[in-house]
Amino acid sequence: MMKQQYLATSPAGVGVYLAQELLSFGAEDVVERPVGVSFTGSLALAYRVCLWSRLANRVILQLGTFAVHSTDDIYEAVNGLDWGAHIRESGSLMVDFSGRSEAIRNAQFGAQKVKDAIVDRYRQAGRSRPSVDLREPDVRVTAKLAKGQLTIGIDLSGDSLHQRGYRLDGGLAPLKENIAAAALWAADWPARSRRGEALIDPMCGSATLLLEGALMALNRAPGLLRQRFGFEGWLGHDEVQWRAVRAEAVEQSTQVATTDVEIRGYDADISAVRRAQDNIVRLGLERSVRIRCKSLSGLTRPTHRDTVNGLLVMNPPWGERMGDASSLRHLYHSIGEVISREFAGWSAAVLTSDVTLGKAIGLRAHKRHRFQNGRLELHCLQFSLTTDNELRALREPPAELAKGGKAAPAALSEGAQGVANRIRKNLRHLKSWRQREEVTCYRVYDADIPEYAVAIDIYEEKIHIAEYAAPQDIPEEKAARRLEEVLDAVQVVFNIADRHDIALKQRRRQRGAEQYQRSKQEHTKMIVHESPVKALVNLKDYLDTGLFLDHRPLRGWLRSEAKGSHFLNLFSYTGVATLHAALGGATTSTSVDASSTYLQWFNENLALNGLSERQHRGVRADVRQWLSEDRRHYDLIMVDPPSFSNSSGLPDFDVQADHAELLALAMERLSANGTLYFSTNHRRFKLDEAIATRWEVSDVTSASIPQDFARNRRIHACFRLTHT
């Protein structure tokens, strides 16, 4: 068989194990690269890697690498390839472009140049050109630009290989299947399972670690449940060879239906247990993997059979995703206490994104590995639970009050008491609504007493206060004293011992970006819930937190209307509206924003909700320019521009002056039966009268104002637009 060059991509940190796996498959010329592992072999080997690899993301057939210095070079290199050997005339393609140069500043432009070169190859030969399909193309073309070298390939995998097909809901912070497999590989689980050692996960969640461990122990191909691979629409595909490779794997899976290895999982959350059991059933592993609802404190070594040796593996809550730092440190120390007491002689592997929490376990890790789980870096800490690895006591960090924090006052001033009374009144008023709607993030005070001009927002267990600019005739000393009284009131109402626990945005007498006082950035995000969405917020480092609370109803509308749609989010910010649309069933989404910071934040939000960046893409661009160049149509569009913008390198924007042009561009991209929502927080905004003459316009502002903002009906304006 003819041998060809391939690249198996993988998450950072996994390459060393992927190289070992490829060698076990019979790959040759195996070389670890920054983005994965290159190898040579037959097409049958490539099929085997697609079906059997537990560690790879993608398998790419390398078509060639070219030195390029301009867009013309890129065009000529791609156009010179024989695309008729790969894509049928009636077929479809998409281009996955990565990398930058002086000539190529963004991936979308690079993908466009590659696509043009491919389709022109057909036109030049007098043949019909393939179409572009961004959802389910026949062939995915990869183009990677780095250091003046363009590498072109065919993606044989389709969707990422980590998507096995057995997990429909990954829970709160999904662990990618190939990261779970890499952690098990690093802990030498394949060899341990052959020796008959047990595998136990005491905090199993959706059971990803256990299921990947069971597939290893059974020597079962992880890709058997996948419905489609990328090579199936490729002209070079050999169906006979593929059927032979798959038939061999199917036969292997039927021969070994169970294993004598003890594989058990536990979780205190019954809903997590049910998700795990569903995943087990989808894989047909009911006889091999057993899950029970049990808390960590009740964990003991199984006694029904001899389990002298085994591996404990777990991905406990970490970082800001599940709770405050203090409670998490105690949780991790409890892990150390239980496993050292109940599982002497065993080994343990713990995954966490926070190494300080790993230290809180209290045991000495003898090996450490780092993996990239989406946008999050995970540390895999390995422990030998031997007698010489003694549990260390948990050391408490210095109390915040020792750093200068201010305790709550014993008595409130008259002004502070008035603020406290108003907050309590608002809390009572909102209580039944919050419980009915399951609202956990809301506004509890919005300058209700004009002299105390602040907005107070609750983000689950945290308090955020933003000070409004005081009038020029108010002395700074008086404004400062009133802010102190607000803080006193908040501490008393919410029983906050230390003022450091309150996130405060304080105004100065400056304009623009310096309006808010800012301390050293802490780069700390926490997870909040807006059912069914999980979103990261940052209460301290930025002017806004990452979640506009007043848009809660609008995001609900988007979720309810998104099923089966192509969604477009313009001025997408951290992409929470996109999360709602995606979890509401949007087929694809595109989120456009000029800020790389917010797009990174958006990608983290995608990962948190178990959503694919390939299906829900973020685009860094000026919205108006991007709209003028984009040619796709969308069924549901959200437009939420800033009131004013004068960002460096971008055209100035004034929502009152520029909204008519902006909406005209956006409506060109709206499908015939689609819906566009336009929102602005400009307090004196007036919709251009000409807009209502071109499209159907409904003012939905009143319905879009949530109950916690009902005291301030001018918080935003919102309109619904459709084609006439």
Provide a brief overview of the structure:
This protein has 724 residues and is α/β, with parallel strands linked by helices. Strand 18 (462-467), helix 13 (476-493) and strand 19 form a beta-alpha-beta unit.
What does this entry look like structurally?
The protein has 724 residues and is an alpha/beta fold. Helix content is 32%, strand content 25%. Strands 2-3-1-4-8-7-5-6 form an 8-stranded mixed sheet. A 7-stranded mixed sheet has the order 11-10-9-12-13-15-14. Helix 2 packs parallel to helix 8 (239-255), helix 3 (71-79) packs across helix 4 (107-124) and helix 5 crosses helix 7. The longest helix has 24 residues, at 414-437. It starts with a strand and ends with a strand. The relative contact order is 0.06.
